[in-house]
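Notes continue from the previous slide.

Worked example: a multi-chain complex. Inputs as given:
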Amino acid sequence: MGLEQFKNRNVGTQNYKTLDLDHTPVTGMGQFKQVVSRTFKPELFVGLWVTFREMINALFRGKMHTTQYPFEKLPISPRYRAIHDMLRLLESGHYRCIGCGLCEKICISNCISMDTKYDENQRKEVSEYTINFGRCIFCGYCAEVCPELAIVHGSRYETASEQRASFSLFEDMLTPIDQLNLQQEYQGFGAISPNADENIKKTPLAY
Amino acid sequence: MDATHLPEVTAAGVIIKAVLILAVIAAIAGFGTYIERKILAFMQRRYGPQHVGPYGLLQLAADGIKLFTKEDIIPQHANKIIFAVAPVITAATAFIALAAVPVFPDFTIPFIDVYVPSIASDINVGILFVLGMMAAGLYGPLLAGMAQANKWGIIGSARTAIQFLSYEVVTGLSILAPIMMVGSLSFVDFNDYQADGTWLVVYQPVAFILFLIAGFAETNRTPFDLLEHEAEIISGYVTEYSGMRWGLFFIGEYANMITIGVIASVVFLGGYNDFWIFPGWLMIIGKIAFSFFFMLWVRAAWPHVRPDQLMWLCWKVLMPLAVINVVITGIVIMLVQ
């Protein structure tokens, strides 16, 4: 397909259909006819019916639109970048972080700070890991660069708190050991929402 | 009605009834805001108020506390006396109008055997009195808009004036045809005229529709809510009002909605006569409730009109129709007699 139709800037000369609207009547008889036809057209009652039908739908057919937010929440997309989660290995329960420091290095707002040391088995151990959420811009680079899928963006988007330190310590972000079976694996970029099928609907053109 | 059961109109009885009407209608008017929010919400597939009390029923109390405890602000350049009096005019006239409308059939209180005519005062110009009172209620918005030194208020009161001038003609002329048929202005006579089960709407469908349309204009309900249409003139005549003064306007509006419902029921829809197996009191409650629901339904469904469209509608369409209706009714009455 060529680019000609996109380069044509003469708006109104291509691909537009003019609606066949009724013209405003000029004669007295024409106006009278318009008034009569509009008066006896059931358009007003169509409006009444539509609202009544929606009330029946809402009350008796369970088509209420409201999500009662603090009590029920819509699933968020896997692409959403909320407060970070630190994941654990499923087999051993040990945290996945190997202390490579890539996330600290790539962080463009310099909000990740970590400290590592060798433990008794000469393995790297994360002795300190904090994210300053006052600076974090939730760009997602840390999750993207992590070679072990250890730091990912979780689903905690309600970040109002008495102090931001409530989120920022390693232990707070780490999956609790008793909830290891509930740990969500990162779906990857381009993953669709878990309720994507429900969100598909026809374009509402006709009532 | 035999001689032993003549209505005992005593001063105490009238006062009790007046207090009852004031209390019950004020409560229903307040409750009407809850009903309106719920019905509108359902029609838009929402829940409406639901957190204060079961099903949000105590929302009314929460709103009341809020309205009563809000600071009472009178703008600096407002005419303070008129500003303060205007909401009272709306609320008071709405309740005074209810003095002459019958809501229930006459009944006898059991055990103490007191016969109660359930109308506060059956005056022989009932319809004129009620319509006049509701029309006088429009002085509330008119004065409120002009007293508050606010341009939106001025526009609101100007719209009040044109709306008032437009619909009042239609109300009067549309209800004239039923008055000619019944030959009385008393609501009780209207009710008794339909005691055989034939509702006046069967004879006067055009007058009924005209009266309904004018009733929407009279109560500032949606197709004609020009006075305080938020999208155009902020809040119109209530722009500067807050707290309980603002609340009084709306108590008046909801009381007027009930009054219009009662008038439509008694004049056109068979009043409080028994119907099939349903007792009269149930019938009229059902009719008033439906008319209230209909006003909310219309608000959910229809857009509102411009002031010039309202004047066009009232003067060029509805008034000629009402006059033709009156003339035809007169000719038919003349031929039948």
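Summary box: The interface with chain B takes residues 35, 39, 44, 47-48, 50-52, 54-55, 57-59, 63-66, 68 of chain A (CB under 8 Å). The radius of gyration of chain A is 29 Å.
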